[in-house]
Amino acid sequence: MASDREEFNLCGPSHLTTVDWANEDHQRCVAACLVQGIYIVERDRQLNREGSEALAPPWWESFNFKLIRHLKDDADFSIFGGIYEYKSLQPETVDSGVPRYVIAFRGTLTKADSITRDIELDIHIIRNGLHRTSRFEIAMQAVRSMADSVGASSFWLTGHSLGAAMALLAGKTMAKTGIYIKSLLFNPPYVSPPIERIANERVRHGIRFAGSLITAGLALSRTLKQTQQPQQQQLQLQNLTEDPLEALSSWLPNVHVNPGDHLCSEYIGFFEHRGTMEQIGYGAGIVERMAMQHSLGGLLMDAMGVSNAVEVEEPVHVIPSANLIVNKTNSEDYKDAHGIHQWWRDDQDLVSHIYMYK
Predict the structure, then answer these.
(1) Separation between Cα atoms, residue 168 and residue 132, nearest integer Å
(2) DSSP 3-state assignment of 70?
(3) What are phi and psi of 184, to 5 degrees?
(4) For strand 79-86 and strand 101-105, is the pairing parallel, antiparallel, or unpaired?
(5) What residues are paired with 353 via a beta bridge?
(6) SS3 151
(7) CB 19 within 8 A of CB 62
(8) Confidence of residue 290 (pLDDT cuts 50, 70, 90)
(9) Is 137 left (phi over 0), alpha (psi -120 to 50) or beta?
(10) N or C: which terminus of the chain has fewer CB atoms within 10 Å of its end residue's CB?
(11) For the CA atoms of 249, 313, 132, 108, what is the dihedral angle to 10 degrees?
(12) What's the distance, CA 76 to chain centroid?
């Protein structure tokens, strides 16, 4: 039997009868529903729900979109994403904020037909190896093709959980080439111990400060070991103090997180801590920028000589700038805090803050 949460008429945003595309709340609701549409279209496939029995179409047709392409994983053939097209884009609506296209990615589905592959991808996120997977390559090809054919300003990227990591990595990849795509990311995973759950603010700051020092120190030590000549070491030191994240600083994704969701809540502390390190002075800002570019887990494994255990390159979750939207509404449990459904409800206490990288 279908879950009530799969049916648009039972749990969709009934309050959103008319979409104001200049309204960020409306944009968020529609994007979340389009992501839900990808979840449900995969469930329709798994349960052989077709025609009038399919539950997915209302999730996009209610907002005048059509699903023009499924993105399928080449390992298990599950539908992990989709490309939507707005049905009728009139000349007078071109500048109203309506996206011509939306590329959406679902998160992990805990069902027999998809869970094995989805968890494999989740592990790749932890290992900073998502970019090496065939699923991401399929997603990236779709994003590049769309950017080449219609232009970056004509479409959005969106996703939830694992899908948010896919959209985030795709957006970062394009942003590094100077192409900035509007991105709405829901509960993107932040690979870190849930420090934000610690009640004492001073303890949280102390742990993050120590983590930044250790990460930056290990990164510096690893770089120096890889170079033997003093001249090479000097060049490597110069590269470390240069800022590779500066190229990403103009990209401002909308990152939606819930403090009760330990998979994404560390984004809150990440941005707050970075501002604190800049205020400290005495080079603390430089230390933090160095630490941001590396995975502490990967560096520790590398220092212990455990090769290929964890990638040591830039973690997926690192972004220099963001519009951080925090849902401060009390959640019943983790499932509620992590769910996509919260993002189209109209009774949530949302607080947003723009963090620009300097």
Answers:
(1) 15
(2) strand
(3) -120, 110
(4) antiparallel
(5) 324
(6) coil
(7) no
(8) low
(9) alpha
(10) N
(11) -70
(12) 23
